[in-house]
Amino acid sequence: MSNQELLKEAIAIKNKAYVPYSKFPVGAALLSRSGKIYTGCNIENAAYPVSCCAERVAIFKAVADGVYDFSEMTVAADTERPVPPCGSCRQVMSEFFDSSMKIHLSNTHEQTKTLTMNELLPFSFQSEDMGERG
Ligand code: THU
Hints:
The protein is α+β, with helices and mostly antiparallel strands. It has 4 helices and 5 strands, in the order αββαβαββα. A 5-stranded mixed sheet has the order 2-1-3-4-5. The radius of gyration is 14 Å and the shape is globular.
């Protein structure tokens, strides 16, 4: 699976974003270790805070399908710089992605910046931090 293929999927699902409020569509394509791609777009709501980002939609679709092992993710948006995922998405990513997993962030010119999970969210809160309770 090439980065280009994941980017193509992320751009395709971006066109399905439900964004009547922000008018800012985002697409994400998540590659599972078994080779299946889970895509997500942002889905907004008149009650703004219950909107969900593209990254989380893709991750939640995979998890709802019983899939927890991932190898790469690509995010695409119509931004000048490669789109930076929000803090909530970074925390959700860190629940499921290894610290070395690569996340490709793309912009309107299809220029891509690649960061690892640890670069995207260093010193993240993990279940181990809850000790016996986690
Ligand atoms: N958004 C995403 O879906 N992913 C990101 O990485 C950044 C922000 C969405 C949330 C909201 O629907 C819109 O973009 C504007 O914030």
